[in-house]
Amino acid sequence: MALENLVKAEVVDNVNVVSFGASAATLHGKLVDDISATLLAAARNEQHQLLVDLEHVEFFNSTLIELLVRCWKIIRSAPGGQFGLCSLQPYCREILEVTNLTHVWQIFPDRAAGVAAMREQGNSSQT
Fold first, then answer.
1. What distance lies between CA 25 and its chain's CA centroid?
2. What does the domain layout of the chain look like in residue ranges?
3. pTM value?
4. What are phi and psi of 110, to 5 degrees?
5. What's the pLDDT band for 122 if we cut at 50, 70, 90?
6. How far apart are the C-alpha atoms of 103 and 7, rounded to whole Å?
7. How many helices (H) does the chain have, and how many strands (E)?
8. Do the Cβ atoms of 50 and 75 come closer than 8 Å?
9. What is the pLDDT at residue 2?
10. CA–CA separation, 113 vs 107, rounded Å?
């Protein structure tokens, strides 16, 4: 499976946004290995704001959680760093609630809300 069908990284209003294609509906094992370089590169980007869009992801396991924690640690070590998730499917939200990560990470209903909130928070931290 081609990487461009799995994961896409882009900068939207100075926020790094990583999203997954429909072919990444189930993220575990080898697929997480395949996307890890893209996700970690976005976390290390100079914007220090990372929004992970999980709209097309219906299932993930501890392998993806471990990768998200690595990204979050990179982001939080940067001044003004922000990390969030958006567009969670019900089962994915449930996994994050059970692990209490919904209390640690910002969760947004959709990409537009996440980008707007991070942009606003980024602007207020620069003043």
1. 15
2. 3-121
3. 0.92
4. -155, 175
5. confident
6. 26
7. 5, 7
8. yes
9. 64
10. 10
